[in-house]
Amino acid sequence: MTTTISTDAPTTHQGILDFVAEVAELTQPDRIHWCTGSDQEWEELTAALESTGTFTRLNPALKPNSFHAASDPTDVARVEDRTYICSVDEKDCGPTNNWMAPEEMKQIMRGLYAGCMRGRTMYVIPFVMGHLEAEKPMFGIELTDSAYVTASMRVMARMGSHVLDRMTELGADFVPAIHSVGMPLEEGQADVAWPCNDTKYIVQFPEERAIWSFGSGYGGNALLGKKCYALRIASVMARDEGWLAEHMLILKLTAPTGTVKYVAAAFPSACGKTNLAMLQPTIPGWKVETLGDDIAWMRIGDDGRLWAVNPEFGLFGVAPGTNEHTNPNAMKTINKGNSVFTNVALTEDGDIWWEGLENPPARATSWKGQPWTPESDELSSHANSRYCTPIKQCDILAAEYDDPRGVPIDAILFGGRRKTTVPLVFEARDWTHGTFLGATLSSETTAAAVGQVGVVRRDPMAMLPFIGYHAGDYLDHWISMGKDHDESRLPRIFYVNWFRRDEQGDFLWPGFGENSRVLKWVVERIDGQAAAVETPIGHVPAPGALDTDGLDLDAARLEAALRVDPDEWAEELPQIQTWFETFGDQLPAVLWTELDGLRARLGR
Ligand code: SAT
Ligand code: MN
Question: Which class of enzymes does this protein belong to (predicted)?
């Protein structure tokens, strides 16, 4: 069958009409649906997803308007080895990215896209990352043949008719983003619950500001506003325009005195960004409010400060481990409903369950569709299973979330998951040293990406899989943010590690709500009130400077959590050296100077 663009396309924006027509011509969908974002559309989408077995409606008394989905067992995480930055010039990519010449990639993908939407609906999703009222709204159009992706995009991004109308009115530029699950349906062929393709490509064209994705329905591979646009493409825009697109949560911290500070923090995927963003402080009188849990766009304001907005509209959190203790605010948010749960267990009373959640059910259906009991050998939920929920439902969402100017950041935290070596918290000496800390950020890998879990890898600014250009140039961009602006107006930079362990393998620090004690030390540092000792790696809390009132933690464990062990750090030196060597001469020279300085301070 041939596709005809319905004449009732709800826009006169020629660029959008052309994009839709061109992709429809190539992919041959049976139908084209222009998304409005209305409640009625949501009803239709979710009904369609129930009819294909993709969605199971949860018990409305427990999780109203919410759905369970189970993916194909092979399509559960971001596929970094299938992710490409197709810059025109190869040297604008790497050493941490895969590259292919844009035309070569397009030829391959046009072959894959040819007829790939046959038998399906192509959804046209007009969306904006960040505020529609922003000075320069950051528009996108995602074309997808997945109703699951369309429903999820409605939760994760501001989308629909109001966005399209504004694009039309402004004749706005937009990021064209194509997504297909890569499973056309022949006449009479029944659909499967989770269509996908063994061949996967997640491709960014940085100069064109375009995204082409094929073969996967999973979040970061398929909800193209998120990692592909708001990090990979936006990081290139940010380089060109002098701002930062970062893999960071944003939180607002209010002290008992009423003083407000804004903190951004970069941790690799599945290292607790969402938990920190919604932290419930254990120290009296302190309050945390959430602004974002995954992505921060930060621009220098007229006042010289670094102002951050969260471009997203929902939370896409790791489910396992989330519970009333680790993240009570996330639990409250998802319990309000309007959420999609992917690759968790489904209970007999129509609720969801995952490892770490309270009250394990006697029986459930595992994410693989198998009968499951607490005695089962297999986990009920995939380690990277996710909840997708509207951020507006979060009771502790800060009012500033709706302000297109964002919030002025006082502190940036870098952090990773390290069993050894890295103390609970320390402060960088200045912006360049802070950039060095970010550049050498290391973490044990998690299930958020396909591959081995638990091996230490360097992950600059937690952006390793998300930098849309050469990582050396990216670090240089960070250095120049410090050089080009008044450093005293920029955020102070800290490094945290909640995950250090003792010889028995037990965590030294209790984490979660107790991390408010670390935040308190951070803001008191900024206000010149908290004591620190200078060590070779930076400023560590002086004995007694970290508030441990009411905390059941013996002094030896605290000391071990904060210890800077020169021998452990000496082992880091060759690793950092090797890491830096991978950048060749594209590594900013000042980072070598920083490494030399660290080596000298360690006396090596
Ligand atoms: O896997 S996603 O990219 O959707 C989320 C994450 O890894 O932070
Ligand atoms: Mn993330």
Answer: lyase
Mean local confidence (pLDDT), 555-578: 97
**How far is 559 from 126, CA to CA, in rounded Å?**
53
Pairing status of strand 532-535 against strand 492-496? unpaired
pTM of the model: 0.97
Residue nearest to atom 3 of ligand 1 (CA): 220
Q: Is 270 annotated as a binding residue?
A: yes
d(CA 245, CA 249): 12
Question: Using one digit for the tens of pLDDT, what is the confidence trace for 151-187?
Answer: 999 999 999 999 999 999 999 999 999 999 999 999 9
Buried-state track 321-334, b at ≥16 Cβ within 10 A, e below 16? bbbeebbbbbbebb
Separation between Cα atoms, residue 535 and residue 538, nearest integer Å: 5
Superfamily of domain 14-52+79-241: Phosphoenolpyruvate Carboxykinase, domain 1 (3.40.449.10)
Query: What pLDDT shows up at residue 1?
Result: 42
The answer to whether 222 and 235 have CB atoms below 8 angstroms apart is: no
Residues flanking ligand 1, CB < 6 Å: 78, 219-220, 226-227, 269, 294, 316, 448
φ/ψ bin of 94: left (φ > 0), alpha (ψ from -120 to 50), beta (otherwise): left
Tens of pLDDT, residues 228-268: 999 999 999 999 999 999 999 999 999 999 999 999 999 99
Q: What is the ipTM of this complex?
A: 0.97
Measured at the alpha carbon of residue 349, what is the angle toward residues 346 and 352, in degrees to the nearest 5?
Answer: 30
Q: What is the CATH number of domain 315-393?
A: 2.170.8.10
Q: Which residues contact 325 (CB under 8 A, 6 or more apart)?
A: 512
Inform me whether the pLDDT recorded for 114 exceeds 50: yes
Catalytic residue among 116, 228, 271, 388: 271
